[in-house]
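User: Fold this; tokens only.

Assistant: Input:
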Amino acid sequence: MKYIALIYSDPAREPKPGTPEGDADMQAYFTLNDSLIEAGVLVGGEALEGVETATSLRIKAGKVETMDGPFAETKELLGGFYIIDVPDLDSALKYAAMIPAAAHGTIELRPVMDLSAMMEG
């Protein structure tokens, strides 16, 4: 089963790039990537640009509205994701706990819908 691990963190609490802590955090992500590849569970994953580059969209009264930035007001911001293919939630939790941001943020795990199975049925 595929799971997406959404990586949320509070920029005020995460290690800053270019510092020893930030370098160690980035190395931990490289190590995690290698571990996921070696385990054969990595489907994909990416880091996202900062929230200041976001554009949100919604449709109201049939008209498309766009606005700069994220819609939700929260301290923890979505910074990236992994998609993994594992047998069950326990396995997904094991890998999600390895994501460095789990130490200073939140990892949200969600099963990915298998739409091809729904279309066949």
